[in-house]
Amino acid sequence: MEIIKVIPRGFCKGVVRAINIAKQTRDEYPEKNIYILGMLVHNKYVIEALEQYGIKTIENKAKSRLELLDDIPDGVVIFTAHGIHELVKEKALSKGLICVDASCLDVLRTQDMVKKHIQQGYKILYIGKKNHPEASAVCDYNSNIHLIEKETDIHELPHYDKVFVTNQTTMSASDVYELFNITKNKYPNSIISDEICNATSTRQQAIRQLENIDAFIVVGDSSSNNANRLAQIAAENNIKQVYLIDDVNDLSIESIKQLDRVAITAGASTPTYLINQVIHALETNDSTHQEIDIKKIL
Question: Are residue 282 and residue 261 in the same domain, yes or no?
Answer without folding.
Answer: yes
